[in-house]
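User: Some background: our group keeps a shared notebook of sequences we're curious about, and every so often someone picks one and asks for a predicted structure to add to the entry. Today it's my turn. The entry only has the sequence so far, pasted here. Could you supply the structure so I can complete it?
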Amino acid sequence: MARILEFILNGRKRLDAVPDNRLLLDYLRETVGLTGTKTGCDGGECGACTVLVDDQPTLSCLTLAASVAGKRVDTVESLGANGALSAVQQGFHEKLGSQCGYCTPGFIMASAGLLRKNPKPSEEEIRSALGSNICRCTGYVKIIEAVQHAAKLYAAGEARP
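Assistant: Of course. Here's the predicted structure to add to the notebook entry:
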């Protein structure tokens, strides 16, 4: 079966017919062509597929596309504006928060979700918010530093999360 899916994706209204069993990850990558959201473990264990649904970090590999009807979904492609990086993107860039980059979109979206909810998180709160994201290349130190830097940029009004 299929249904009409109507929601806001990266600030724009979308209206598509989607099969009931279509995962949000597959919808974003294959139907819409937004490939920033990565397929990692396919089981909700790595966080590479993290998107924000109404500002809440959500694993798109475990979420049916139909379940976001009437909601707002933001992917990594939604961050930054007019060629300027978002605070989180800038933090990851300036503090070398990514290595191979595969997990980076998921970490960035989880971090953006955290800063939208809590613009001045402690290190413990950052670690907790990123606890469901896995990086196989780093020891997480640079990732934590990147989010701390992003929080400072955001608090100073230099960039949005």
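Suggested note for the entry: Residues 2-78 form a domain with the Ubiquitin-like (UB roll) fold (CATH 3.10.20.30). The helical segments are 24-32, 87-94, 104-117, 123-129, 141-155.
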